[in-house]
Write a structure and sequence with these properties.
With 327 residues, the protein is an alpha/beta fold. The protein is 24% helix and 25% strand. The chain contains 8 helices and 17 strands. Strands 1, 2, 3, 4, 5, 6 and 17 form a 7-stranded mixed sheet that branches. A 5-stranded parallel sheet has the order 8-15-9-10-11, with helices on one face. A 3-stranded antiparallel sheet has the order 12-13-14, with no helix packed on it. A hairpin with a 2-residue loop joins strand 12 and strand 13. Helix 1 runs parallel beside helix 8. The protein is elongated. The two termini are 29 Å apart. The structure holds flavin-adenine dinucleotide. The site of flavin-adenine dinucleotide (FAD) has 37 residues, from helix 1, helix 2 and helix 7.
Length: 327
Amino acid sequence: MENKLDVLIIGAGPIGIACALACKKNKLNYIVIEKGALTNSLFNYPLNMSFFSTSEKLELDDIPFISTNPKPNRDEALEYYRRVTTSNQLNIHLYESVISTEKNEDGFLVISEKRNYQVAHIIVATGFYDIPKLLNVPGEDLTKVSHYYKEAHPYLLQDVIVVGASNSSVDAALEIYRKGGNVTMIIRGDAIGERVKYWVKPDIENRISEGSIKVYFSSEIVKIEDQSVTINTPKGELTLANDFVIALTGYVPNFSFLQKLGITLSEDKLIPTYNKDTMESNVANLFLAGVVCGGTETHKWFIENSRIHATQIISAILEKKEGNLKQ
Ligand SMILES: Cc1cc2nc3c(=O)[nH]c(=O)nc-3n(C[C@H](O)[C@H](O)[C@H](O)COP(=O)(O)OP(=O)(O)OC[C@H]3O[C@@H](n4cnc5c(N)ncnc54)[C@H](O)[C@@H]3O)c2cc1C
């Protein structure tokens, strides 16, 4: 067991790192516990993705993020967050999963798969990229089905179905088409998503109208088999020849983990209970930071608009500490 810490941060995504920087700046004794690599979600993003944000919007603690183009790519973001971590000598344990926490007289006992930590405050910054929203159709567990997209090369000369109409689906469909895959998009709504990057939307719409990428709007997959996929369309059921399905229908925070920590969730959108000024949850001294706050509405939170959680939380913790000293 380590000596009592002021703060334990669960998750070393951009927002967990922002919280660590704020702790260090304010001389709080902290540790970050991360179950994978540093910024594990970004590490698992498509190899050729670029961010929709400009690099200064992804900066932490005003540390300059210099990128070749205004909107950085995945490699540049990994380089930036790595450099921020090493040059500030942040106290991060990688490849260590937090399993549970127990409240006690001194705060919390945090139990990871490797050791226990006694801490006064916890910041949960566990993000949303580990649990995909499932299609819940027969055949979804076949190895040809993936809920993540990495690169186009495996899909050369293959019949590929991309499910979804968001940025991720559109980027994957365009890249696979351009690298020689035969792409069909299955979209539940009647159009390409409104939030698709404004400079990419005309590209996908033109590829669809010229027939290079096929699309079924107002349609859903009903069954996946080894060499085919059955879809429900406004004109009835159709069976398409298929080699791979890439279902990019979004991701959700680990709700059962949040509930295990004692955090209550709203009934409709499973939004955790927290104070919008301090980010403190319904469990005293346990704070939420980053996209984990979003419930099922994860699209509302980005690095851009949640990096501020770090300063909100650390100010609240400092105020609490000052209050305790005066007592
Ligand atoms: C393709 C794509 C493009 C995007 N582009 C942009 C953009 O341009 N601009 C923007 O602002 N946002 C963008 N986003 C959103 C942005 O990446 C997320 O909002 C951001 O990653 C949230 O940061 P976070 O630190 O809250 O969570 P995450 O980055 O998801 O980090 C959470 C971390 O917690 C770790 N973790 C989870 N559970 C545990 C546990 N039990 N124990 C220990 N560690 C744990 C995870 O491994 C992970 O490393 C994009 C997202 C995607 C998918």
